[in-house]
Amino acid sequence: MSKHVQDTTTLHNGVKMPWLGLGVFQVAEGDELVQAVKTAIKQGYRSVDTAAIYGNEQSVGQGIQEAISESGIARDELFVTSKVWNADLGYEAALAAYETSLAKLGLDYLDLYLIHWPVKGKYKEAWRALETLYKEGRVRAIGVSNFQIHHLEDVMKDATVTPMVNQVELHPQLSQQELRRFCAEHGIRIEAWSPLMQGQLLEHPVLKEIADAHNKSIAQVILRWDLQHGIVTIPKSTKEHRIIENASLFDFELSSGEVARIDQLNQNLRIGPDPDNFDF
User: Fold this and answer.
1) pLDDT tens-place string over residues 235-254
2) Residues labelled as active-site residues
3) Where is the NADP-dependent oxidoreductase domain (predicted)?
């Protein structure tokens, strides 16, 4: 069980990935994002998750560079993730997209590179490109995002490298238990995006009751539930007090009864697109 914001899980290739990271979805380029990245690193976060389509890799990179130069943290202490967008899912296009992301971030390598969405008929070529990057030592780990079981099975049929991570929408009302079981069986680490359901769970009575019992916020209870289930999580925030609050998860533990109550909130309810039915 993780005891600290810098605790890591070991991916199936031996690379260590922090359990907790900063998400930057829907945060525009600019000083607010640069400061958020610096704040997170200053507060002990070591993982930042971005994507080409977020259009903010430059500011994420700037925040990382400034944090490194101001704090003396080494690049290899950080874990940086980006994702290849749907328009670039060909073999050559995905290789080129990786170089573009690196250039924007101002980095020599990424710790994790993901296929963002399972676009039918395209993601296998992209996976071949990610395998090439991985085998050439250009990226430390590779994975996918928003893949259902059948997408994973399809990739793994021809893959020479099994995905190390599957980043999916996951929160108490979409707990993805079947997918989590499948990934656990194949050594694929599940990572939750939108762990707080974009704020929609922050008034939930069951969660409020559990939070009050621990003198914690609902957000902290949900993120703690992720950790106790062995789910990597990347809550998004640009506000310093939230960034600090989201990392204050290591001085309490949910009982098995509380975990079970949260498990029972599942309704298979998505707020994001359905990976089997999207048109972008």
Assistant:
1) 999 999 999 999 999 999 99
2) 54
3) 21-266
